[in-house]
């Protein structure tokens, strides 16, 4: 029996997450993965792509056992973070998963809206560079910098890719990423 597998890009805090539709033997199974509906990707557009009916549905449920709580979408988080950053006089530190690129974009946009430089640690910068040119990263975005621990040599091969390959655009002339 041949199986057909179709991926559906979905919204998740992990970059490049997919639902999988598996069809074979006259039956279908949709594995949702741990999708969410409050990120930067259109939840409605995803739902429109999916089949109307499947024989089996497998869902992850990371948040099913959590008490009911208000969950902000990324745009609301960005707006609230920008307002808070404007009121803060000193540095603002955010701890987040380096692979949560929607969150990275939200806090980058908040930093831009509040007139701040955006610092990434070395691992976050590596992830951002690997994800593509639309994700805030040093060397491509003039107001993004890498913060290095004192024991990391500045000339090491791990950070050589962060040198700008072209003159950086000014933050004012570049549109904000929408990823």
Give a short synopsis of this structure:
This protein is α/β, with parallel strands linked by helices and 179 residues long. It has four helices and six strands.
Describe the structure.
The protein is an alpha/beta fold and 179 residues long. The chain folds into two domains: 55 residues, no CATH class; 89 residues, no CATH class. Helices cover 25% and strands 16% of the residues. A four-stranded mixed beta sheet has the order 1-2-3-4, with no helix packed on it. A two-stranded parallel sheet has the order 5-6. Helix 2 runs parallel beside helix 3. It is elongated, with a radius of gyration of 20 Å. About 6% of the residues have low confidence.
Order of helices and strands: EEEHEHHEHE
SS-derived structural category: alpha/beta
Distance between the termini: 39 Å
Helix share bin: 10-25%
Largest sheet: 4 strands, mixed
The assembly state of the depicted protein chains is single chain
Low-pLDDT runs: 164-174
């Amino acid at each position: 029996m041949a199986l057909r597998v179709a991926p559906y890009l979905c919204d998740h805090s992990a970059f490049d997450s997919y639902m999988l539709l598996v069809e074979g033997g006259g039956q279908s199974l949709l594995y949702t993965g741990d999708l969410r509906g409050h990120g930067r990707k259109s939840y409605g557009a995803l739902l429109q792509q999916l089949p109307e009916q499947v024989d089996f549905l497998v869902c992850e449920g990371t948040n099913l056992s959590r008490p009911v709580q208000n969950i902000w979408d990324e745009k609301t988080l960005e707006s609230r973070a920008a307002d808070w950053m404007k009121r803060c006089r000193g540095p603002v530190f955010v701890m987040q998963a380096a692979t949560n690129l929607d969150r990275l974009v939200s806090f980058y946009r908040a930093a831009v809206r509040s007139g701040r430089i955006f610092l990434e640690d070395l691992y976050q910068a590596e992830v951002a560079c690997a994800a593509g040119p639309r994700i805030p990263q040093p060397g491509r975005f003039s107001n993004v910098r890498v913060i290095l621990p004192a024991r990391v040599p500045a000339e090491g091969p791990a950070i050589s890719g962060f040198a700008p390959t072209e003159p950086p655009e000014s933050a004012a002339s570049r549109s904000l990423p929408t990823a």
